[in-house]
Structure formats: structure tokens, C-alpha cells
Amino acid sequence: MKSSHGANLFEIQKEYGFNIDEIKDFSSNVNPLGPSPKAMTKLEKNLNKVGVYPDPNYDQLLSSIEEYTNVSRDKILLTSGSTNLISSFISLINPKNAIIFNPSYSEYERELNKINSNIISYDLDKSNDFAIDCEKLTRMIKENDVSLVILTNPNNPTGYAIENEKLKNLIKSSNCYFMIDETYVEFSDVDKYSAVKLTQSCDNLLVIRSTSKFFAAAGIRLGYGITGNKKLYDDINKHTNLWNINIFADILGGEMFTDTDYHKKVFEFINREKEKMISTLKKIDCLKVYPSKSNFVLCEILDKKMTAHDLREKLIPYALIIRDCASFNNLNEYFFRFCILDEQSNDKLLKLIENILK
């Protein structure tokens, strides 16, 4: 419940006397519909396997990911949480110079600092909706002898996503490695934005996926990576422990990746609610609402009559928690982010923000 990346729900519960299940955490970015019902049913039927070792080859799990991504298993790296793969890859590449984007997920910088990498920041321009200028990025890579570029697509917290055709040209024109974190890509048009298919022709690419957000399964700590670079695959894989994925992650993953009805339901619900919330908030004159290809929306309070922290504090008594984005590099105290939750909670948040800011 406590994380440097979000709300401490226990502290809020204690201070305001809420029950934990009363609190609506709009800072979490987790799919509110919960895990795949088919996967949960399968898990319930197999709870007695708690004393059984998983299949060390993870045949069923890999088959499901193969079907889901249309990528052969000899390109898929299984990992206990995507953060472990991020750490392993950065340590393996050991880049002297690396580019990260601001604002973005803070763990990249932390992992690069562990190996004393020289971090070169690409500050995304809010006047251009935090889009990436590919020509500028290419120049930065060449001028700074960059070994690794790390980007999240769609980006957190901005919601911007770069098309895979632009990524293809960028990756192929550069000699460095690219690590693309696609934690939120399933909330977008995967065919347009995912870099997975680029791994077939770009051997300087690792794509990382998580099951925490779209699949609402953070507790099973299941992530995976995809690369077409055989040496990179082998180098990462040989440092992976036997039975790296626990039995319940194996069972859930084997089912949820093939539950296409669930995938469609989540995608349609999130995007329908997101468009409703964006269109409503755009009517507030003092608020800038940035476009988003993910399940969250970044906003900026333009008149500076209150900070995002002030707004957050005004919402907490109603058991609603938004993310104050002042801690993100290249953002300030007037930015906040919220994710899409259930329809009733979304409507409640909209009404309160309108009342507070108008």
C-alpha cells in the first residue's frame, strides 16, 4: 500500500477514518475491472497447487504469450516483475551514456545511477504535448555517444505515445540499444504503437511488458521481455533463476493472455470513460488537459490559484486520491494525474474537480 510512486493508503485511512475499500486511488493506474474472470476461475480451481513446483519450461505460459504477442517463445524472456528485467538489462548493457526522458518513470534513473552511468536528459516540451522530436533525439544520440535510450510508450505520466513506424526509423538509424517499456501499451492501439513487431528486424531493441496495469495483476509479479537479439536473450536468460515465476503467476498468465473477450472489454471501457473525462475537464478554463493514449490523464492548473497538492488535499476527505506530479522531473507543482476507475468514481471525481476549480 505504501510506495514512493503513489499514495500511502494506510496513512490516509488512519487520518480520515476510512475503510481501505472506501478509498478510490486515482494514482494507481490499475485497470479497475480487475483480473480476467476466466483466469481467476482457473486459479481458484488450482489453489491446491501451492505446494507444487511450476513447470520449469513454462510451456503453457509461453504458449499463451506467443499467441498474445504473435512472437515465438525463443524471443520471450519471463521475469518476476518487469522491474527485475529493467535492472538486469541496464546492468548487462552497462551504458557509459544513456538517454532518459523527462518526465518519466523514476526507476530508470535509479537503475542507471547504480552503475554510475552518465544520464542525458531529454526534456519533453509541454507546448508540444510532450511529444518526442525524432530528429532532435537522433542528434542527441550521435553527439553524446549514447549506448542506451530508455523510453516508456505510452509515457507515464504524460500519456504521449510514439508510433512504431517512427520508432522503426529511429532505432534503425542509431547504433545504440533501445529499451522500450510498454507497461501501458494495451490501453492504446497496439498495432500502431507497440514496438514488439520491430524486434524481428531490430537487434538493438528490448521491449518490456508488465501484467500489473492492464491485467490488474500486480500481486503475481509477472513481466516479460521480447528481443530478436539471440546473444542478448541468452545473456539475460542465463542469469534467470530456475522457477523464476511462481505457480500462481504461471496459472493466471496461462489463461489471461488468451482471454480476448476480457481484453476487448477492458480496452473499450477505459477508452470510453477516458474520453468522457477528458471532454468534461476541457470545459474548465483554468485547466489544460493533455491528450493520452493510456489509462491515465495529465492535467495542468493554468491560473496557478491553487497547486496540484492543494487540489489533492481538497479531494482526500471525499476518499478520492489523485497524483500530485510535482516530484516528476520537468513538471511543476501545478500538474496532476488521474487514472480511469469505475464509472461512479470517475463521475464523482469530475464533479468535485469542476466545483473546486470553477
TrEMBL record:
Documented EC number(s): 2.6.1.-
**Keywords, alphabetical:** Aminotransferase, Pyridoxal phosphate, Transferase
Record SUPFAM superfamilies: PLP-dependent transferases (SSF53383)
Q: Which cofactor does it need?
A: pyridoxal 5'-phosphate
**UniProt-recorded Gene Ontology molecular function terms:** pyridoxal phosphate binding; transaminase activity
Pfam family of this protein, just one? Aminotran_1_2
Gene3D superfamilies attached here? Aspartate Aminotransferase, domain 1, Type I PLP-dependent aspartate aminotransferase-like (Major domain)
List the CDD domains hit by this protein, alphabetically: AAT_like
Q: Which domain of life does this protein belong to?
A: Bacteria
In this protein, which residues make up the domain named Aminotransferase class I/classII large?
25-351
Provide the family line: Belongs to the class-I pyridoxal-phosphate-dependent aminotransferase family.
Its protein name is: Aminotransferase
Give the species: Finegoldia magna (strain ATCC 29328 / DSM 20472 / WAL 2508)
